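hi! just following up on the protien thing from before. the input was this:
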Amino acid sequence: MGQPEMEALWPELREAVNEVVKGYFFDEPHSQPERVRLHLVRDESFALA
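and the predicted 3d structure came back as:
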């Protein structure tokens, strides 16, 4: 997946993570983290011309 495709999916990923965290901490909302860090790592290889 290239950079433009990932950038297009990033808001959708953020919303999904937000929903999962809220669901995980539904019974103890005071324990829910204030922030979640998303870290994108690109592992890319290419042919040299």
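DSSP finds one helix and no strands in the chain.
The radius of gyration is 16 Å.
cheers
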